[in-house]
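Changelog-linked ticket: pyridoxal-5'-phosphate example.
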Amino acid sequence: MRVFNFSAGPAVLPEQVLQSAAEEMLDWHGSGMSVMEMSHRGKEFISIANKAETDLRTLLEIPETYKVLFLQGGAMAENAAIPLNLLGSKTTADYINTGEWSKKSIKEAKKYCAVNVAATAEDKNFTYVPLRENWRLNADAAYVHICTNETIGGVEYHWIPDTNGVPLVADMSSHILSRKIDIAKYGVIYGGAQKNIGPAGLTLVVVREDLLGHALSITPSALNWKEQADNDSMLNTPPTYSIYIAGLVFEWLQAQGGVAAMEQKNIAKAALLYDYLDQSGFYQNPITKADRSRMNVPFKLNDESLDEAFLKGAQENGMLQLKGHRSVGGMRASIYNAMPVEGVKALIEYMKEFERKNG
Ligand SMILES: *Cc1c(COP(=O)(O)O)cnc(C)c1O
C-alpha cells in the first residue's frame, strides 16, 4: 500500500509515472532494453531526451531564445556554475537572502566573486520576502540571485522583481512546474529535479542564449553552460534514467491540463492547509501570509513536547516524512504537484484528531 509522502525531496512522484516506468522497465517500446541500459547517443534515448525537452518547453512556455540543459550535480553545483558562467569581466553579484537555500548559494558564490547581499530577511528569522523597495542593488552586479521558493523556511516569491536590466537568476528547485512563470523575466532559472520534477540526479538549467559564452576560463567543462548547450547536454553522459522519468512526469502534467491547471490545484491544496492552521490554537505557521509557500508548509505544535507523538501517529496513519528541517524544527508538509488533495485532507483530519486528543 502506498503512503502519503510529505517529503521535501526526494519526494512523491505520480503513481501513473511509476506504473509506466515499471511496465517499461525490462523492455522500453520494443527495444529489448531498459532505458537504464541504453546508450545516451542511440536513437532511442535521443528520442526520449528530445521529447522531454519539447514537453518541458510547452509546459513552461519557454521562449526560443532560451536553452534548456539537463545536467548533473544538483542545485548545489549550479550555485558554483552561476558565477563561473555569468561573471564575465565583472567581479560582483547581488544576492537576496531569504533563508537556508539562499545562504548556500551565497556561500558558494563567495568563492568566485564579491557578493553583495542586497536584502535579507534575517531580522525576522526568514519569515518573509524583503520588499523590492528595500533592496540595495549594485549597478555593477553581473546578476541578481534569488531563491523563489525556500524549501526549508516555506517562503515563496509571488512576484517577479525588476532588476533594472541586470540578469535575474532564480533557484526554483522546489516550485518549478507548480505555477506559471514568465521565463522572459529571468536570465537563468535552475533547480534539482528531486522536488517537483522527477528523481534525484537530474539538474535543470534554463538560460537565455545571450548569457552563454562568457564563462571564466577556470570553469569546469561539465559546468560550462555554453559547452553543454553546444552538445545538447551530452558533453558527457547525462543522467539518462532521471531524464526519462522526468519526461514521464511532463507527460503526466500535460494530461492533468498543464501548469495552469496544476497551479489551481496547488492553490486549493495550500489554502486548505493554511486555513486550517490559521484557525487553530494548537498549531501555527510563522510566515507572512503574502509570502507563504504553496509547496512547503512548515508548522509547529504550540507544545513541542508533543512533536514525537504527532509524528508517530502520522506514520501509523500512513503519512510520512512530516518532520521539519533540523534548522527550524517542528513539522513540514511538502505538497508538491504529485501530492493529491486527498493527502492534504487526510493530513488535516489527522491534525484535527490529534488536537482533539491532546489539546
Ligand atoms: C533541495 C534544494 C537545493 C539543493 O539541491 P541539490 O540538488 O541537493 O543540490 C537547492 N535549492 C533549493 C531551493 C532546494 O529546495
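Closing comment: Example verified and attached. The longest strand covers residues 114-120. Residues 25-255 form a domain with the Aspartate Aminotransferase; domain 2 fold (CATH 3.40.640.10).
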